[in-house]
Structure formats: C-alpha cells, structure tokens
Amino acid sequence: MIGKAVVVRLGRAAAAAGPFALALVIGAVILAVTGYQPFSVYRLMIVEAFGGEGRIAATLTEATPLLLTGLAAAIAFRAGIFNVGAEGCFYLGGIVAAVVGYRFPGWPSALLIPFALVAASIVGGAWLIFPGLLRARLGVDEVVTTLMLNFIAIDLTSWLVDGPLLARGSANSATPEIAAAAELPRLALGATLSLGFLISLFLVIAYGFWSRFTVAGFRSRLVGLNPRFSRAVGVDLPEVFIGVMIASGVIGGLAGGIHTLGLVHRFVAGFSPGYGFTGIAIALLARNSAVGVAIASILFGALASAGANIQLFSNVPIEIVEILKGAVMVFAVAQFRFGWMRRRSAS
Amino acid sequence: MVGEAVEAARLEPRPRLADAPLFRTRGLVGADAMAFDRLGPIDLDVFASQIVGVAGVGGNGQDELVACAAGLAVPNAGTIAFDGHDLTGRPVSRFREAGVGYVSANRGEEGLCLAASIHDNFVARREHDPSFSRLGLLRRQAIDAAARSALTRLSVRFAALGDPAASLSGGNQQRLAVARELEREPKLLVAAQPTRGVDIAGTAFIHGLIAAFRDRGGAVLLVSESLDEILALSDRIVGLYKGRIVGRIGRAEASVETIGRMMLGQSSS
Q1: Is the pTM of this model over 0.90?
Q2: B2 in any annotated domain
Q3: Which of A185, A209, A215, B84 has the highest local Cβ count within 10 Å?
C-alpha cells in the first residue's frame, strides 16, 4: 500500500514536471535552429536565476505576485470554478493600495500597511461577487464574465491614473509615490525582495492546510470533483461558488496591493505583465496543490528574472523566455496523465 | 463475492404503524430537463416502517418522482410534505436535514464521487457534524474510524480508505453509497434502482439493509425497474404509467402478473 502511494505521488510529480520538460525540449530545438547552444543558454539561465543570494532574491521577487495569482486561480479551480479574473483584481488591488499609500502619509507603518492591504483585498473580493452571483444563481459562464471584467478593471484603472489620480507634474500614467511608511519592509537578503514574499508564501501554506484539514476545504473540493453528487448530498452549491469566487478575488486584490507596496511603490498603467494569466498556468500545472503552486511560481519567477539577464549577457533574444512560458502553459493545459492513471479515473 | 450467504427469501409483510404518512405528495407534477411534464399529478403516501415500491417501465415518470422526493427538482405543481412540514420548493439541504436519504440510480455520477476517496465519499456532507469536525477542522481519525467500522460492518471490500471510490467494484460502490445514506439515519430513504448492476450477493445484502431500515421504523420509497426487487421488498406497490399512478396494491395481491399489468398501464383494481 505504501508502495502504491509512492508510485501515485511520483506519477503526479512527473505529470506536473512533464510540461516543463517538454517546453525545455521545444525551447532547445528553437535555440539550436537559430544558432545558439541550448545547453549553455539553459545553464546561463539557471545561473542567472539561482546563482547567488542576489539572484535568488530577484527570482523570489518575481515569484511573489505569481504565488498569489496562482493561489487565486487554484482556490477557484479546485471548486470547479474557472475564474480567470485574478488579473483584474490585481490591477484594482494595486491601485487601491497606491491610493491608500499616498493619501495617508502621516500614518505609522503598522496601521498604514495593513489598511492598504485590507482595502486592496476587499476591493478584489467585491469585484468578483458579481460574476460569482451570476454563476451561482443564473448559471452564467464565469470564464466569460471574469475575462471581460479584466478588461474593465484594466481600462478603469488606466483611466484613473490618466485623470483623477495622475501624479501632479507627471507625464506618465502613474499615481504619486506611496509614503515611505507604506512600503513593505525589505528582507535583508536582497535589494528588492520584500516582506510581501513571506506573506504570499504564508498564504500558500495556509491554503494547503485549509484544503486538507478544514470543512470548507473538503466541501469545495467535493464540489469541484463532482457538483452533481455534491448537490445530491445537500451541499449548497451557490454558497460554495460565491465563496470561492470572493476568496479568489480577495487573494488577487491582495496580490496587487503587495505588488504596489512591496515593489512598484505606486500604481502605473500596465501595472501587471499578465501575472493573473500566468497564475492560471501555475494553478493548472500545480493541479491546484499548495506545494505545486509554490514550486511553479518560483520556476516562472526564475524564467522571468533570468530572461532579462540572458539578453544582456548572451545575446539570446528575451523572446525565448516568452516561448518557454507559452510552451509550458500549452502543455499544462493539455493535462498530462499516464495510461494507468487514466484507466483508474475512467472506470 | 464468495463466503456470504445469499438470502433471497421474501420479507414478511408488516402492518402500518403510524396514522399519518411520513411522506405525502398531493397533485405532484414533475417536469424533466426539457421542462416537459413527465409526472403526475399524483398523490402518494409513504408511512414509517413501510416500503412503497414504485413499479414501472423506465421513462414513465420515475426519474421525476425521485428527483422531487429527494428535493433535487422543484415540482411544477402540487405539494410535498414530510413529517408534517411542507417542503415544496425547498433546497436539497432542507430535505436532507428533515431526514430524507437518497440512493441515486446513477451511481457513477450522482450516487458517489468516484474521484474522491472512500472515506470522503462516506463522510460527504456530514463533515460539519460535531463528531467529524471541530471549529471547522476535520477530525480525520474520527472520520476514518467511522468509515472503517461502517464499511467493515457492510462487508465492503477495499484496499485503503484513501483509495478513490472508483477503485471499488460496482457492487462495493453501491454498498458504499447505501451505507453512506443509512449511516445518516434518515427517516425516509428514496432508493432508485438500488441494486442495478450489482451482483447477486450484493443485491441480497443491500435488500437486507433496506429491509432492516424498514424494520427500525424507516420509510422507503423504492423505485425499481426490477420486478423481483419490487416483489421482494415492497409492503405496498404502486404502478406508474405515463406519469400517473395506475394501481395500488398490497403485498398480498402482488404477483408478477398483477405488477406486470400495472406496468403496462392496465388498472389492477
């Protein structure tokens, strides 16, 4: 029995690692065809992502928003809700935290930071109540509504920073800088790594605990696995749907707030390079597990932090990183499963 | 399935114990997924300590009757009363709390969650029960102990409680589904095709469970396309034909022929 459990675990790990391995193969072919040495490029990327304290700190900085957007997606996917709205929540949370951060410069950090992050979370959660209600009460497809709400959130925030919230004297579409008291403390490890990383990591761990050991975690997984069964045994599906949608929005908003307070220190148009969407790939790769979200976020963070540097040092175009990311996402969605796993679940 | 005695003997008929029915429908009309009225209007009573068998060829309104009785569908017209309370249009959770148990005819998609583990299937929707969780935290050991003892009692063969329910054989899956519902100690069990696709030993075992539930004072609404099952278990039999009740007979009058006639829409009385 123990042997079987180990085999199952190994199988899951292989299934999760598969998309990465295949993406690396495809990337290697492209590099070779375009006249680069794939292995030396990959080695350089590993060195740039993990070689030394400063580089590890940069990788973890890149991983910070992904931990939370991956978590936001995972918590919804686990309950069978394909919420793709974390990107919009990220923008809204980011702008709310920025406004709180510069409007209350006299406040001490101990009040200002929690206030800004809670406000960002509340706005993120509130943003997804509407698609949650539509899904729960009227059966409206949440993929469509949350996707569309992303555009509304992105355009709404860029209008705000072009008009009412534009920093005085600034030509860029950006809010004023937040007060120094609102900045998340930096960790000693590196220049940019902030307390936000630890908060994010803590939340991913808390999610792992929640999904395994709590009544709500149990119930939402059951709904994700088989909504019809769940309804027949008396689980209130609308309650679960709306609940995970709000939780997902709260985490997405918090991610944006942490990004503002920890790294950018203001809100600018084009605040997120698609963190919300990368989070979807992370949740899919991770099969919604907490450990998987943590590992996949760090790997995507490594790709992002290495990407900028390899162009500087090896002449390899930065697009190779985008190709790798895209390939991982495609294969992640393809959901690798081995023959014996498929047989089990089909019977 | 070896080593278990196969008992196919008919149950003795029991007298009605209660004066008022536990489950009562009046003018019940049920529609299918296409909003087409397939059932009713029907008036049906089920008393405590009684098994009412609904005989009929598939597609004559059984699915709609089961869905309404289990609270999964809202009737188009008419009322459903349970234990003196009107439950018409109430959510499934209200039916469950009132004491309705449900064995689905669709084991793979509704009766069980095949992808979830055996103990998770066992405890589903009772996880908030104080014996299985405290302050929102699951008591895994208590869940495992309860699942293990119930499944052992019901001679369900399994390798590990953490294995997916899909790893069980069909008969053992159905035992698990029935066990889960009976462990909740409902007042009424809505049993739809409870032994479809189950081996002989498993069928006898599940029949024994249902009969024992009846003997403890439980009411059963048994919907089956199997004449043998209807004959073996029912205290009263109603025939369902084109959504209407075409006959009501007691066990004494029941035979393959009388039930067969009801299933074909011929009134028996």
Answers
A1: no
A2: no
A3: A215
